[in-house]
Amino acid sequence: MCCLVAGVLLAGCATMTSSTGRRQNVGAVSQQELDQLGAQAFAEAKQKQAISRDPGQNAYVRCVVNALVAQLPASTRGIAWETAVFEDRDANAFALPGGKVGVNTGMFPVARTQDQLAAVIAHEIGHVVEHHFEERLTNQVRTSQALQLLGALAGDYGSLVTQGGSIAASAGFLLPNSRAQESEADVVGQRLMAQAGFDPRQAVDLWQNMLAAGGSRPPQWLSTHPDPSARIRELQSRADTLVPTWQAARAAGRTPRCR
């Protein structure tokens, strides 16, 4: 892993344009290295967290992930996607490079329908397909923060890792995303769920449920995201434009039946 980190530090940087038109700093790490870091972070999460053995919960998450992945570009669709359900009451979910998706059991009471769960997972997959992890690592290199990869943990993401955790976590894989990345993942995720045959309007319902469930303390998945009220308005506005996409997907036979 030290060689991998050294490769991150020494690699060159470049720019690219995301699917939403946003310019990104990338190039500090190869896709192979990203996938290796994602696999390590996922393995560590499974070691640290209790995993649900409930066959219904696991099949449910796999079904939603498979329906969404089927609409990704061939290069991403061809990855052997892996899912895990964690026994944790926090309403949280994540996706990592290399095709890793984790969902906490605490998400199920909040994401009450398959469409609402798809909104959560599609958002997280959006971070992967829009190269947000690569962007974050590249920005760390450019600001010299990547030197910390060989030191203490820079932070954590929810309950997946603890202080003093791994190099994979230090690399930023489990840190909160920037607000620009979060907004972009909203756009990409809502579009992806509609293409897969999930009702994009239920992304709005999900966020309303998240707010209601939070009370005085926002759910973990909500706490690192932009202003909820503004976000709901944007999701509602996009949902109206994505209804034809959803209807076309259903007409084409993309009718997920995960629950």
TrEMBL record:
Every Peptidase M48 domain range: 57-238
GO cellular component, one term: membrane
GO BP term, pick one: proteolysis involved in protein catabolic process
Cofactor details (free text): Binds 1 zinc ion per subunit.
Highest taxon above the source species: Bacteria
Cofactor(s) needed for function: Zn(2+)
This protein's UniProt keywords: Hydrolase, Metal-binding, Metalloprotease, Protease, Zinc
CDD domains named among the record's database cross-references: M48C_Oma1_like
GO MF assignments: metal ion binding; metalloendopeptidase activity
Record bears the keyword Hydrolase: yes
A matching Pfam family: Peptidase_M48
Protein family membership: Belongs to the peptidase M48 family.
Protein name: Peptidase
Organism: Pseudoxanthomonas spadix (strain BD-a59)
